[in-house]
Design brief:
The protein contains 8 helices and 10 strands. With about 270 residues, the protein is an alpha/beta fold.
Length: about 270
């Protein structure tokens, strides 16, 4: 476990997500209330992480949980991941393959470039279809459901199942991906840019012409899938900065803007 933190340069206060093959395996690791059961039924396998009281501290060790009494757990959507988990027979912590603070890899090549030398084996499941990390929801006894990290499962989709979500507040520490500067390329990131300045690479959204267009048609799903790969591609051109066009805040745009604010170094 310590080797995972070392390979990523990840601070030990930042918990890891335990991945399991199915809902029954989740119940052996975490204490799931009715809200968690409903969300799991609605969105698993898929990009939703549930933070709940830990049931079996031996299954997900203290270091992986950053010393917390909760565990972050999910059932991944990719069949290769679930096949690996089924073969292993227990929970596996599986952070993004980036070095801490860097943009998440969404292709095999980018993953190997980031942390490949630290890996004993590497499985290629193809490019990431979703692009963004999972949504993280805290479901703790006697507390409202809290959105700790927006992601591919949107706020509206979750609220349609369990009702209104509260903000992270004191439970924010229970989720990964909450650092003020995170997902950041080497070049500075400037968000909500109408046009690039001299020397900047421009990540467009919609009609503007650019070598890096998150979605020429203004599709948020396409933009999410392209975000990290295009941040990395733009960064490789050696720009003075990376300017990013405004992204609508609704739906999946909430998660995209969260990643961009953190890439730009804003606390959010």
């Amino acid at each position: 476990m310590a080797a995972v933190y070392a390979a990523k340069g990840r601070p030990s206060f930042n918990p890891l997500i335990a991945h399991v093959a199915d809902l029954e395996a989740t119940r052996r690791v975490a204490v799931l209330d009715d809200r968690a059961e409903r969300l799991a039924t609605a969105f698993w396998p898929g990009p939703l992480t549930i933070v709940a009281p830990v049931r079996d501290e031996a299954a997900v060790c203290d270091l992986a949980r950053a010393g917390l009494d909760t565990v972050a757990v999910r059932v991944p959507g990719h069949p290769l991941s679930r096949a690996l988990l089924t073969a292993f027979g227990g929970p596996l912590v599986a952070p993004s393959a980036n070095r801490s603070g860097r943009p998440s890899p969404t292709t095999f090549v980018d993953a190997v470039e980031e942390t490949g030398p630290s890996a004993a084996e590497a499985l290629d499941g193809g490019p990431c279809a979703v692009g963004l990390e999972s949504t993280v929801i805290a479901l703790l006894p006697g507390a409202p459901a809290r959105l700790l990290r927006p992601g591919a499962v949107t706020r509206a989709q979750i609220e349609a199942v369990i009702g209104p979500l509260a903000e992270a507040e004191a439970d924010a520490r229970r989720s990964p991906g909450r650092m003020a500067l995170h997902y950041a390329p080497d070049a500075p990131v400037r968000i909500n840019a109408v046009a690039p300045r001299a020397g900047e690479a421009f990540l467009a959204f919609g009609p503007p012409d650019s070598p890096f267009n998150l979605s020429p048609t203004g599709d948020l799903v396409e933009a999410a899938a392209n975000l990290f790969a295009m941040l990395r591609a733009a960064d490789r051109t050696g720009p003075t900065a990376i300017a990013v066009a405004p992204i609508p805040a609704e739906g999946l745009g909430e998660a995209i803007n969260d990643r961009l604010r953190r890439a730009a170094g804003y606390v959010g």
